[in-house]
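Throughout our pipeline, every protein is held as a single compact record rather than as scattered files. Such a record has a labelled line for the sequence and another for the backbone structure tokens. This encoding replaces a full spatial description with a residue-level series of whole-number codes. For reference, a complete record is included directly beneath this paragraph.
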Amino acid sequence: MKEVLLIIDFGSQYTQLIARRVRELNVCSQIVPFNKFKGLEDNVKGVILSGGPASVNDLTSPNIDLSLIRKKVPLLSLCYGAQLIAKNVGGKVSVSSFREYGRSNLKIVSKSVIFSGLKDNSQVWMSHADTILDLPIGCQILASTDDVKIAAFSIENEKTFGFQFHPEVYHTTYGKDMLFNFLVNICFFNQNWTSESFIDLTISNLKSKIKEDKVLMALSGGVDSTVAAFLLHKAIGSNLYCVFVDNGLLRKDEYLKVLSIYKNMGLNIEGIDNASQFLKELKGVIDPEKKRKIIGKTFIEVFEVFAKKMKGISWLGQGTIYPDVIESVSGTGGPSETIKSHHNVGGLPEKMNLKIVEPLKNLFKDEVRRVGKALGIKESILKRHPFPGPGLGIRIMGEVTLEKVLILQEVDNIFIEALKQENLYDSVWQAGAVLLSDNSVGVMGDGRTYERVVALRAVQSTDGMTADWVHLPYDFLSKVSNDIINKVKGVNRVVYDISSKPPATIEWE
């Protein structure tokens, strides 16, 4: 891209949210961990320093050479980043007398273009243990809160700003306006980062990267892999070979339905039935991380066999998106924690005969859908609920067996079809059923039963990074529960999951 906003990551939980907010303002953003920052590229028009959990007063705290940025491009520093700037110019940063987390009211004390159009005394979101106590001559306090005197500041004769609060979070009322002021009125970005520009740039990069090589694309029938396949197809045409693998962990009749969906879409696609191989590899495995890695490893084995048969295939295409990368490994090499390994990221074996190409790995789910719409992909695919790559293998607690898969397929089918029949499907971001490892006592026909428990899960989200459970109508849940218990042999109890992400994750394993 001709114009890039660089985000330097100091380990903040909000770093990816900064990138999202910047993209929403049609500006291309890139994240680099502090320990890999070596200087500015020619296309960088501005920099944001993220927050972070460390204290700038610790000898081992994250640091960078700020002279590589200051006075060269506009700089906005947030929370830890602001404290780092303050200490760098000779200010005093110390442990707060009390920790400040949550809502505060911002009082603007000095006019600045970065606060242009904002109402005074607006709500901002704080999350810090240290605070900036003093600034040297040459710095100007821009805003305060009831508890923090230096909530925002600038440095004279340079476009450098520091915020103790987080403008990127939803709870900061005018946060998006502040970012707009920084990006457009201070950095002078042209706001030309759109789905169309992403498509053009990605296709160009794919052509340059892959050249005349052949690519094997792993399709799932979902939004991510389909959009990735379309991008690859536009870049390399007939050198793209798509496969859809039945791993035995799909939804009921999903294998034939997906192959039918892809008909007449112009993609060269072949179906492969390897259900027995996956179930064999999973026999006796209980640990969810081991399940994910086994499923990922088995997928690769299937793809490599197919690649040898086709001859000349040297790349494996995947529909990996940013939340997959963030939860599995640090996508930028920064100090993020692995939540769980996704089968197509952290689950990949260390040694492979195929190189990986992932056109969407820096996009969030809603961004992928917008790109898909710009590509002309059918709404029926773009609106499909996300479905985990490891499939029902991570929705079955404990060992995965054919019997459990068949039970869960029936339960899941009743739930999903009911959502569609009651016009609730499109109002839910993701839904599914989970088969618990424990049995429960029940009574049917005056007799005692000791059968399986299933949990229904429906969440609302934008990108999968956070999610709220959906308040489905009680009458609907009552009918679905009744249908499951009456129609699915082996189930005598249905529960509804009302936990949000965080602290829970969307999937149970």
Q: What stands out?
A: The first helix runs from residue 15 to 24. The two ends are 38 Å apart (CA to CA). The chain has 13 helices and 18 strands. The chain has a mean pLDDT of 88.
